[in-house]
Amino acid sequence: MEALVYTFLLVGTLGIIFFAIFFRETPKVPVVKGKK
């Protein structure tokens, strides 16, 4: 079970970091289509 928790935390952290970097370095990318 610990492996699953560690994997979940790792994926979550990487996802958040990637999301932050992606939206911070390229704010002119037309990805905000679903945002209203």
Q: What's the structural blueprint in terms of helices and strands?
A:
Layout: H1 2-25
Secondary-structure element string: H
Specify Rg, calculated over alpha carbons.
14 Å
Question: How many E-type strands?
Answer: 0
Distance between the termini: 39 Å
Mean pLDDT: 82
* Number of contiguous helices: 1
Question: What percent strand?
Answer: under 5%
Largest sheet geometry: none
- Decide which structural class fits the backbone: mainly alpha
Transmembrane segments: 6-23
Keywords: Chloroplast, Membrane, Photosynthesis, Photosystem II, Plastid, Thylakoid, Transmembrane, Transmembrane helix
Protein name: T protein of photosystem II
Pfam family, one: PsbT
Task: Give an account of the 3D structure.
Keywords: Chloroplast, Membrane, Photosynthesis, Photosystem II, Plastid, Thylakoid, Transmembrane, Transmembrane helix. This is T protein of photosystem II. Belongs to the PsbT family. This protein has about 35 residues and is mainly α. The protein has one domain (about 1-35). Helix content is about 65%, strand content about 0%. It is built from 1 helix and no strands. The protein has one helix at about 1-25. It is elongated, with a radius of gyration of 14 Å. The N and C termini lie far apart (about 40 Å).
